[in-house]
Amino acid sequence: PLALYAFSNSSQVVEQVLARTSSGCFGGNDGFMYMALPSLPFGGVGASGMGRYHGKFSFDTFSHHRACLVCSPCLEKVNAIRYPPYPDSKKKLMHWAMGSHGCTLL
């Protein structure tokens, strides 16, 4: 379910309901206080929800995390060793630069 609430005078009953069930949100002796806390995610499990929403969780859910690497074009002369052709002199220099690990692509 999207949310599950357990109300009881016994904290043991509330803890058992929490431990034995699965839900997107759980409220023990409270129905809506978690909605006031943006640090808690809101969302269901299974057919009741896709993702987590609320505060930063909304931003993370609807954001595309992308790794980016931008290199300066002025380094291309230094990087020219990466590109073919690979004469023996280039291979030796690359093996030296990589240490004893070598490169299986060359």
From TrEMBL:
Residues 3-65 form the Aldehyde dehydrogenase domain. One of its GO terms (biological process) is aldehyde metabolic process. It holds the Pfam family Aldedh. Keywords: NAD, Oxidoreductase. It comes from the Eukaryota. One of its GO terms (molecular function) is aldehyde dehydrogenase (NAD+) activity. GO terms for cellular component: cytoplasm. Belongs to the aldehyde dehydrogenase family. This is Aldehyde dehydrogenase family 3 member B2-like. It comes from Carlito syrichta (Philippine tarsier). The lineage of its organism: Eukaryota, Metazoa, Chordata, Craniata, Vertebrata.
